[in-house]
Design brief:
Blueprint: H1 7-35, H2 43-51, H3 57-66, H4 71-84, H5 88-112, H6 134-151, H7 157-180, H8 186-206
Helix pairs in contact: 1-8, 2-7, 3-7, 4-5, 4-6, 5-8, 6-7, 6-8
Length: 231
């Protein structure tokens, strides 16, 4: 049985839940603005500024690649590791969040149908529309999940803080890279960050101490599966 929770833990849980609500609200408001073609302040000027940094395109391409291809293996790798270490309820939750994030991102792209500033990317399916940024969403969500799991471990504090800071810096740099490469508006990146924080908050709150996903288990029910001895 779990012992009584401290006030600090309770405040942390409330903070994660508040992050989910605030991120969802921001996502909805921004999406409504995009659907109704409302001009987003500084969107055009920041895009022009970022694309003027063309001398750094090699670095932007490297960052863009880092923010894309490794994320699926990292996400599925976390699911596999949790399952292997008998944290199977958490593995199920993470898999559900990854699936929900993919569906939500693709649905919003279809609903908003916002063309990329550079136009469609030829030869690559699924990248016709720009809102929201899948890179930004996946990076914040997946690197954030790793940060939360590491933070709750017994690893040294310097490692926890260092990993969280590096993850945050990397997410910001990848977001800048996507705008500098002229494939996203800044508001696409903001939407991706909001979506990533929404799903990260869901993960953190859903795995809080005492929650269903925080308990070890081999089935979806609250009961552990046991093997009966032969009669």
């Amino acid at each position: 049985m779990n012992g009584p929770r401290s006030d600090s833990n309770t405040r942390t849980d409330v903070a994660w839940l508040a992050l989910v609500v605030a991120s969802l609200a921001g996502w909805v408001v921004l999406t409504i603005a995009i659907v109704n073609k409302v001009a987003i302040p500084y969107d055009t000027s920041w895009l022009a500024l970022a694309t003027s940094w063309s001398a750094w395109n090699d670095a932007w391409n490297v960052l863009s690649t880092i923010g894309n291809y490794p994320m699926i293996p990292l996400g599925l790798g976390l699911v596999a590791w949790l399952w292997w270490t008998k944290r199977r309820r958490e593995a199920i939750l993470v898999l559900a969040i990854l699936a929900a994030a993919t569906v939500a991102s693709e649905a919003l792209k279809a609903i908003t149908a916002r063309p990329r500033p550079s136009g469609p990317v030829p030869g690559i399916p699924g990248v016709v529309y720009s809102y929201p940024s899948g890179h930004a969403l996946e990076d914040v969500m997946i690197l954030g999940m790793y940060s939360v799991r590491l933070w709750r471990s017994s690893k040294p504090q310097w490692l926890k803080v260092g990993f969280a800071l590096l993850s945050a810096i990397l997410c910001v740099l990848i977001g800048i890279a996507r705008v500098a490469l002229n494939v996203h508006y800044p508001s696409d990146i903001l939407a991706g960050f909001l979506g990533g924080l929404l799903f990260l908050g869901w993960y953190a709150y859903g795995t809080r101490a005492g929650s269903w996903a925080s308990q070890p288990g081999t089935s979806l029910s609250g009961l552990h599966l046991t093997r009966r001895a032969p009669a």
